[in-house]
Every structure is written in structure tokens, then in C-alpha cells.
Amino acid sequence: MDCHNCNRSCHHAGRKHRRRFGFFWQKARKEICEEKLLKIALVGSPNVGKSMLFNALTGAYVTVSNYPGTTVEVARGKTVIHGQEYEVIDTPGMYSLLPITEEEKVARDLLLEEKPDIVVHVVDAKNLGRMLTLTYQLIEAGLPVLLAINMMDEAEQLGLIIDREKIEKELGIPVVTMAAAQNAGINELKERVAEYVKK
Ligand SMILES: Nc1nc2c(ncn2[C@@H]2O[C@H](COP(=O)(O)OP(=O)(O)OP(=O)(O)O)[C@@H](O)[C@H]2O)c(=O)[nH]1
Ligand SMILES: [Mg+2]
Description:
By secondary structure, the chain is of the alpha/beta class.
């Protein structure tokens, strides 16, 4: 049975509520399901650390399937932030919202069709300037974007200075710095995601 609010066959459409509401279950379920599975999509160029961030967020319960009609694999998992469950989608690498490769087309279609509650644009801190082009495209497309500047460990080794607050002001979206390979900045990212979806 699918839940009316979040369109999935889920635990809030399950036995617990049915037992509680008994005969009136069918009528009542629309009102009682306040919980909604929110979606986080991880997007960005190839090799920036999307899958590493995906693994850090989701842990063990992950499903991988081909995007319909393609050979491109999309991984989905779950994470919980402050008691709220989120589906996390690891999208194939994309350079632009105007797709050239099949991977880019899948990533673009996923964003348009799945309407994520938050789009985390993962970028490589060492190539920030070049990668911000996609950030602007995502913002212009009206998507709820959060910028995650990854590989800060390598950027720091190179002596690069990244002014997170300044970038945040200029872009007008939340910006976090992180090093997914070292599990650094993951909690900060989660906090900012929670803040963003609350608004
Ligand atoms: N030094 C460093 N390496 C990282 C970090 N995050 C990811 N990597 C490395 O970068 C490489 C690419 O990471 P992935 O997570 O596979 O990148 P991706 O964005 O999923 O790449 P595609 O799936 O090809 O689009 C791997 O070798 C990771 O170990 C980081 O914060 N610091
Ligand atoms: Mg990947």
C-alpha cells in the first residue's frame, strides 16, 4: 500500500497505523502521515568525491540499479539527520546541465524527474573556479543547491586559501568545506542540509 503523502510503500502505511485506526485506516492515513522521506542528490564532475561522500553518509544499506533504459548505474542509500530520514542518490559525473554523455543525461534527468529536496554540488577545492560554472547553472535552474567544497586536505597542502563565507555570500547558498576521504566536514554538511530543508 502506498502512502498518500510520500507516494511510497512505506512503514507509515504499515501495520502500526492500521491497527491504531482499524476500520478507518483508509480514510485516516492521509492525515496521519506527516513523515516524508526527503531526497538528497549528490551531483558534480567526475572524480570529485561524490561516491566517497555517499558512502560516508549512507553506510551499509545501499541499492545500485541501472537508470531506466540505460547502462548507467545509480546508487541509492539512506541517512538520518536529527531523526529525519533522507534518501541519498549518488548521480553519475556531469560537467554541465546541457548533457553530452549518457552519464550527464542521466544525472540531468534524475534532477528533473526526482525533484530532490536538496542538491549537493560536490566540487574539488583545487579546481573551484572552473567547477562553479555548474553551481551557477544549478542555481539558475531553480534547484535547491548546497555547495560542498571537497578535497580540502589536498587544497591545504597546495597552500590554497578558500574563503567559505565569502563564497557563501556571493552565491547566496549554503557552502561547506570538507574532505570526504578523511571523514572531515560530514557532520557540518548534515547540519547545513537539515537547516536548509527546514526553511
Ligand atoms: N585527498 C582526497 N581524496 C579524495 C577525497 N574525496 C575523494 N577522494 C578520492 O578521489 C577519488 C574519486 O572519488 P569518487 O568518490 O570516486 O569520485 P566521484 O565524484 O564519485 O567520481 P565519478 O563517480 O567518476 O563521478 C577517489 O580516489 C577518492 O579516494 C578527499 O576529500 N580528499
Ligand atoms: Mg562516483
